Amino acid sequence: MKPVRVGLLGLGTVGGGTFNVLRRNAEEIARRAGRGIEIVHAAAREYDPSGLPGIEAVTISDDAFAVVENPDIDIVVELIGGYEPARELVLKAIASGKHVVTANKALIATHGNEIFAAAQKQGVMVAFEAAVAGGIPIIKAVREGLTANRIEWIAGIINGTGNFILTEMRDKGRDFADVLAEAQALGYAEADPTFDVEGIDAAHKLAILASLAFGIPLQFDKVYTEGIGHITRDDVGYAEQLGYRIKHLGMTRRTAAGVELRVHPTLIPEKRLIANVDGVMNAVLVQADAVGPTLYYGAGAGAEPTASAVVADLVDVARTLTVDPENRVPHLAFQPDSLSDLPILSMDDVETAYYLRLCAVDRPGVLAEITRILGDGGISIEAVIQKEPPPGEQQVSVIMLTRRVREQQMNAAIAQIEALDTIEGTVTRIRMEHLGSE
Ligand code: HSE
């Protein structure tokens, strides 16, 4: 089947990320979508081809309308941001029967009602997962995963730049302006960074979340919005002394009298998970009647995290254009004829780090014997603790952390350690995972 043809408006941070992710993961994406997804035409006034291998195969125009009007294109991806000409371009794409994917929260929050009405009339999709909380699939979670619930409130750290600034001020005592400049250089900040620090970007996203949660039209103009500019390092310090963290929070709550829509710096008890969301990370906490609280966490800004959401929307649209309506979302995420036969590792071949606890006779050379067995087995030690034996006792507890090693090697080493006559009983082993992104 022919690939779905995509026109991309914008080759900046998110546009470049989208192009790279689509290209790098093309094969897996096609297995999920049921066909390939290819960017054939892009609009950009200026771009740097050095970070975009393969871009030479794409027609590049400096006029975005040329992409929207291209009859060969099935889906327009709008990543130029801002209100105009984004609104005009999106409405034009819809009018010509094209589906739209956008990361533009300002556009959806302020013109979404008009855009969705036009799309409904034309029978096309407008997908906007990347508009809220970057790479976190929060729209899918609220709109689909929580559909059984009556949502009571949503609280979110939904601006990565603001969270990055508050975190750096707290942890490193850095100046506001200096951190903001870094966020801009890293591609987190909006073209107009006052949108980040004054809370407008968060207010755009909150308006979208509130509509999805409560089934109300988009009402960005009713969001109470307060920025972080007046928060001092002293405020951050006093809040900490009292057991709180200051976070720039978007909050929407359904009350008997109406819906709260507000963005402002907020003290949150430090023991709450969401209070510990730092740096450019975002998190959205949803309180719903059946499931209770659920928390969604991840990168809220940046090239590839945002591209992750854009490409997910592209896959959703491609599926509706491709597969039979009764099997739009494949049961196992990949199309049934694209499942692959990857081997499942036996536990012997799995690699993890380990915590080991053993009981050893307290005499010279015992620890050396144990470390020799581990060393011969290719097992590297990260840390060792040896506890003082209780008065009158001969045995000591030795605790070790190891680096990652195959289970088979660890089994062999443990068997040899247990066979030493200086070791009492069996070795307790607990597998250890650092769960970082490395
Ligand atoms: N400027 C936004 C942020 C980008 O910092 O979160 C993602 O919407």
Low-confidence stretches: none
Give the helix level as a range of percent: 25-40%
Q: What fraction of the residues are assigned to beta strands by DSSP?
A: 25-35%
| CATH homologous superfamily heading of the largest domain | NAD(P)-binding Rossmann-like Domain
The third-level CATH topology of the largest domain is: Rossmann fold
The largest pleated sheet is described as:
6 strands, parallel
How does the helix and strand content classify structurally? alpha/beta
Rg (CA only): 27 Å
Query: Taking all residues together, what is the mean pLDDT?
Result: 93
Second-tier CATH architecture of the largest domain = 3-Layer(aba) Sandwich
Straight-line distance between termini: 37 Å
Bound molecules: L-homoserine
Tally of contiguous helical segments: 14
The top-level CATH class of the largest domain is Alpha Beta
DSSP summary, beta strand count: 17
Strand order of the largest sheet: 3-2-1-4-5-6
Number of domains: 3
Question: Explain this structure to me?
Answer:
- By secondary structure, the protein is an alpha/beta fold.
- The protein folds into 3 domains: 4-135 and 303-338, Rossmann fold (3-Layer(aba) Sandwich); 139-299, Dihydrodipicolinate Reductase, domain 2; 351-432, ACT domain (Alpha-Beta Plaits), CATH 3.30.70.
- Helix content is 36%, strand content 26%.
- The protein has helices at residues 13-24, 26-33, 64-68, 86-95, 105-122, 138-145, 160-172, 176-185, 194-197, 200-214, 233-241, 303-322, 366-376, 407-419; strands spanning 4-9, 37-43, 59-61, 75-78, 99-102, 126-127, 151-157, 224-225, 244-255, 258-269, 281-288, 292-299, 351-361, 381-386, 395-402, 405-406, 423-432.
- The strands form 3 sheets. The chain has a 6-stranded parallel beta sheet, with helices on both faces. It has a 6-stranded mixed beta sheet with strand order 8-10-9-7-11-12. Strands 13, 14, 15, 16 and 17 form a 5-stranded antiparallel beta sheet that branches.
- Strand 14 (381-386) and strand 15 form a beta hairpin.
- It starts with a strand and ends in a 6-residue tail after the last strand.
- Residues 134, 159-161, 188-190, 196, 201, 300-301 line the site of L-homoserine.
